[in-house]
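We modelled each protein-ligand pair independently. The example shown here corresponds to the adenosine-5'-triphosphate entry; the chain sequence is given first, followed by the ligand as SMILES.
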Amino acid sequence: MAKITLEKLRHSYLPNPAGAQDYALKEIDLDWTDGGAYALLGPSGCGKSTLLNIISGLLTPSEGRVLFDGRDVTGLPPDQRNIAQVFQFPVIYDTMSVYDNLAFPLRNRGVDAARVDARVREIATMLELDGQLQIRAANLTPDSKQKISMGRGLVRDDVNVIMFDEPLTVIDPALKWKLRSKLKELHQKIAVTMIYVTHDQTEALTFADQVVVMQDGVIVQIGTPVELFERPQHTFVGHFIGSPGMNILPCEVTGGGARFEGHAVALEGPVTRTGALTEIGVRPEHVRLADDGIPAVVHKAADLGRHMVVEAHVGDRVINAVTDGPAPAQGARVHLAFDPAQTRVYADGWIATEVTR
Ligand SMILES: Nc1ncnc2c1ncn2[C@@H]1O[C@H](COP(=O)(O)OP(=O)(O)OP(=O)(O)O)[C@@H](O)[C@H]1O
């Protein structure tokens, strides 16, 4: 197990990068605490695999260093970094039994037979593979094969880090939820540093204690699931996390307050900065249909069982509100009220209001 430090990392796939646009990773400074459960979350192309490959040693960064417990490993090949990896698709030996597949990483390192047996059985129980230990891996479903792959990643207890790269891609949707919570449980038992890479917010938020959100080669926020949800530091986080995502509305800033489409909007606190683009961010959960507020027209209402998502239009701006119903009719004229404590201004994407208590 190790603390992982990424120091001033930058990476370009081009031989002579000319500017920031030529870097797949722009500048990454990060400390991953020993034993933590982390998720690396972002859309396709944001640089997750590049970062993972730099940590595992498959790729040497153009600039910066990777440290394991303070030791510089930037130049070390993957086999000298002592890490385990679980990929999108199962990496197992089809001709071997489930037992031998799980035992392989341990036998390969000369672990004695009694210890191998104890550890294989422990991991098999955790993954509910006990009854399948003697079956040949080739005869299993893709779900079970991926469970073995995970088991092979988890079986060694001497690794610096276990990295999961979109590990649930091949898993049946009905089983995904189960395996996600299983992984979380396993982390609590094993307490090895784990990094889970995904573009799926639900997977990231269920697994991780800390989520690292990336966009376009940059880390836009590191936080607990609650922090990312409650106070996004960037409009990208607000929009990417949550369903529907945060309402992001262009606004004017005057005298420390904000105006949207001519209406004054109360904020969590004073605006500290402005930029070329200033926007209000408020989550649908903090928008109410009220007697007073911003006049809007209901475009549609979707009943999601436990609550309703109302899509209202103010001019050509769309605002979503999560309400408990009853459903307003399409075309109904309503007023929208934002909860001031949960309404903030963003300048050029970054949070620009401060909370004064
Ligand atoms: N081998 C490569 N050569 C050139 N450019 C690459 C290479 N690998 C990735 N890139 C580029 O680097 C950027 C980051 O890609 P990366 O694969 O790290 O993102 P990602 O978040 O892992 O995406 P995905 O989830 O689709 O794998 C993208 O613009 C991608 O096109």
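The two ends are 41 Å apart (CA to CA).
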